[in-house]
Amino acid sequence: MSVLSYLIPISLLLGGVGLVGFLYTVRSNQYDDPEGDARRILSDEWDDHPKP
Amino acid sequence: MTTAVRPQMAVCPGCVAAPNGAVDDAPTEARLALSLPTIHCQACISTVERGLNAQPGVRSARVNLTLKRALIEADPDMKAADLIPVLEGLGFEAHELDIAALSATETDKAGRELLMRLAVAGFAAMNVMLLSVSVWSGASDATRDLFHWISAAITFPAILFSAQPFFRNAWQALRVKRLNMDVPIVLALVLTLVTSLWETSLSGEHAYFDAALTLTFLLLAGRYLDHRTRAVARSAAEELAALEVPRALRLDDGGEPAEVAVGDLAVGDHILVRPGGRMPVDGQVVEGQSELDRSLLTGETLPVFAEAGSVVSAGEVNLTGPLVIKATAVGKESSLHQLADLVAIAESGRSRYTSLADRAAKLYAPGVHILSALAFLGWYLFTFDMRVALNIAAAVLIITCPCALGLAVPAVTTAASGRLFKRGMLIKDATALERLAEVDTVVFDKTGTLTNGTPQADDFSALSPQDQQLAYALARGSDHPLSVAICNAAEAANVAPAPVTELREIPGFGTEAMHDGTRVRLGRAAWVGAEAGSKTAAFLDRGDGAAQSITFSDSLRPGAAEAVSALLEAGKEVWLISGDTDGAVRDLAQRLGITNWVSSALPQDKSARIMGLSEAGQHVLMVGDGLNDTAALAAAHVSISPASALDAARVASDIVLLGQDLSPIAEACSVAQKATRRISENFRIATLYNVIAVPLAVAGLATPFVAALAMSTSSITVSLNALRLR
């Protein structure tokens, strides 16, 4: 069962990375327009290169 | 962040002409916001953004489809009024929004805080669930204890952080010796944590850490949905309110106008009101001649002539010439405020409404406590084992805990208001949907609600081509609504204006000019020497003595006919109550097929009529826009006002129509009925689940696994049921 001593910290760490990532997206206003973001994917503008 | 420049409003030319307050440091760019009630898809986003970005002076424009709004960063001298025609040219309705009011709600702190707590609870719940699943699938002895200890180490800080809103609410309720939904929640959380910790320290088999976290997560999800719906509505409502600027031009001793806040005006002050401006106070005209639009106060469509000596009331709009008025009543004494008092009286009656959720909580909270206490007592008397009894009591509390109840209402209201928002309706009040579902009588105001409040020329095409050209030429000399209507009709018919010279406007009377050496006039009946009829009309004097009349009627708002017929079809009683004259109201009522109509109604009459209907047991929906409607809007069971309505009317109403179209009203009623049905279905699902799970818990058969399973199934069922509304 010694494998647990690696796996548990790793799982907590990965979960924590997810949490930090989520908090970052909240702070950078990425949930302000869910409706629009869902539609913007259909746009063919900036398909070839990202918006400058 | 740059300093936001308050965009100047085109609403009041007086304010536009005046210098724009004190701006601390020179702004390097302007931030503008436009409301776009009709956008709905990717093509709309692209068109709007491309159109705006192509404008010289616009640095960047971004559309927010969720809020139906465009945010524009532009050169400092850019005005929203410059961009609105661009969007209208692209086929989108656009309204200007005040960025200052916008930024107050833009950073939605409370919402963000809830989302953070939700994320932490979710993260912790997932991790603990991972450990719990291992325990359920057979981890034993030291491994199980280790997993329980790790779970405890994650759970305690997570709950301390994320469940704070519940702790706060419960404490607030307990302090005033009341019970709310949060008291059993907090009790369940605390009891679960304490017993689980105790069990863990004794190497016990069952610990409910995962249940406590899942519970917090699901309840927070409900709270967040609830908050989100209301935040969207609140911010949009505040933006609407920010469109009116409470400023006035006071004349000093030398006769020079200076801009002051309306609140600083005193009785006896001389105030200049420019054409297009609104009367800030009650008063008497001392100088100038003009016409007044009283439609927002009284519902009359015909402009009223005003000259020195005429009495004016706050809220009337000056149409043609500048007027100097002497204030006779300001602030609390003015007729505007007396109407506001009527609103306050009427509103106190409405606050008696208790929402479905409150009613459920009132039954639920004491029930759960009694049940859990009985379980504890029963098991303690049966086994004399404190540990077993506490465990059972905690299991009962956690099983009955209202995840499903907490989600039942917000999930449905979110789905319903999202659907209505897409159709251009803004639900301002949390219980508005429930009240709307009960409506059986609909009362409409006329001017500005069923009609646009702007006249259209009826018989322009019946005029001879020469008369058409002459009328068009004369109408171009004035901004009077009737002149604008003639210009619109002439442009639609491709009429070229006749050549005229010395075109000038005589405020309060009309316009005159020279044409082929004769004097021609367009204006009031008495001025051109004609008999005034009963209909709204302007008269054209070609210089040959006989005046030609042009009659006007109020154009119907788009969707008005559909809305009325759909409501009648749905079996609702429809009333038309207006302050306008008998003839105009009867015409409209016949056109729309409304049999119950009242004309020349004073504001007090309107609200009295609605209170009468309510006392007869009817649930009244009031749709109105004017100041004369505010008392009625507040007195009604539920109320709707268009976005073009006066601030006071919008504040008094529960739902605001963002677009021009009235047809969503009928749909809103049916959506509200469906939503209420879903809410009660959800309550039934939650109860059913309790009926099954509670006996198990009381009997001591509920393991943490059963609790987790039952809790998530009921929450998912409730959410899916709510989604059926979309």
Automatic annotation (TrEMBL), chain A:
Biased-composition ranges, Basic and acidic residues, are 36-52
Superkingdom of origin organism: Bacteria
Listed Pfam families: FixS
- Keywords, A to Z? Membrane, Transmembrane, Transmembrane helix
Ranges for region Disordered: 30-52
InterPro entries to which the protein is assigned, alphabetical: Cyt_oxidase_maturation_cbb3 (IPR004714)
Q: Membrane spanning segments where?
A: 6-26
The record, for PANTHER family, names: FIXS PROTEIN (PTHR41532)
Q: Which NCBIfam families match?
A: ccoS
Protein name in the entry: Cytochrome oxidase maturation protein, cbb3-type
